[in-house]
Design a protein that fits this description.
Strand order of the largest sheet: 3-2-1-4-5-6-7
Oligomer: single chain
Bound molecules: NADP nicotinamide-adenine-dinucleotide phosphate
Radius of gyration: 16 Å
Structural class: alpha/beta
Largest sheet: 7 strands, parallel
Number of helices: 6
Number of strands: 7
């Protein structure tokens, strides 16, 4: 398969890309790095990226930011950071990307544990994760011959040192386990699923 991985050089993305390369052709998209550059919080940049890449068999998004802060400190504009990046970035990957998928193709999005089990300072990040879950369940009702899933993981092993103080008591997920979640979506037949990966 020809697979586009947006965020394919990130902490999770590079492990997913490495595995996919064993069996597939992989094109990596990143904000600054990769084979093609994209700012996926900007729909016109997504269109430009697909114009360069052309048709693929599978699209994977492993990127997206949201602002972390106490609810009392978050302004309306702070909420729009996560809405424009992690939420609408991934919605637009489906909205625009579906026209660049070969028949029977798939799209795999990314969220995290915060959707179900938020921690301090995550009203924005938890909200956009939950929104993506609802979006995936609804969009598959209307897409014929295109699968869409989302991988929702707990804090991953390779990011544990950086984020452990924000996630007290969360057991880090082995990278192999999270990569398997993406492979299940890309190479399997499932659709509309929230693939939850916990340690
Ligand atoms: N780390 C965890 O434990 C964990 C757990 C569950 C869910 N998640 C979620 O999974 C996603 C990836 O996490 P990560 O830890 O792998 O992040 P990361 O190490 O910061 O990597 C993010 C990747 O996405 C790319 N990227 C960032 N913003 C972009 C944009 N606006 N347009 C296009 N590409 C962009 C970056 O490109 P460049 O390389 O070019 O900068 C980078 O390759 C995030 O949404 C995160 O919330 C993470």
């Amino acid at each position: 398969m020809k697979i586009l991985v947006i965020g394919g050089n990130g902490t999770i993305g590079k492990k997913v890309s490495q595995r996919l390369l064993e069996k597939h052709e992989v094109i990596i998209a990143g904000r600054n790095s990769g084979d093609v550059q994209v700012d996926f919080s900007d729909a016109s940049s997504i269109k430009k990226m697909f114009g360069k890449v052309g048709k693929v068999d599978s699209i994977v998004a492993i990127a997206g930011d949201a602002k972390w802060d106490k609810f009392n400190n978050l302004s309306e504009d702070d909420f729009y950071i996560g809405i424009k990046s992690k939420l609408m970035g991934q919605v637009n990957v489906v909205r625009i990307g579906k026209d660049y998928l070969n028949n029977g193709g798939s799209i795999t999005l990314s969220t995290g544990i915060l959707a179900d089990d938020p921690v301090d300072m995550t009203t924005s990040a938890a909200m956009v994760n939950g929104g993506i879950h609802s979006f995936v369940k609804a969009v598959v009702l209307e897409l014929n011959n295109i699968r869409v899933n989302v991988v929702c993981s707990d804090l991953v092993e390779d990011a544990y040192e950086k984020y452990k103080d924000y996630f007290p008591g969360n057991t880090p997920v082995p990278m192999r386990k999270i990569v398997d979640g993406y492979v299940k979506s890309i190479e399997g037949k499932i659709t509309g699923r929230i693939i939850r990966i916990m340690a």
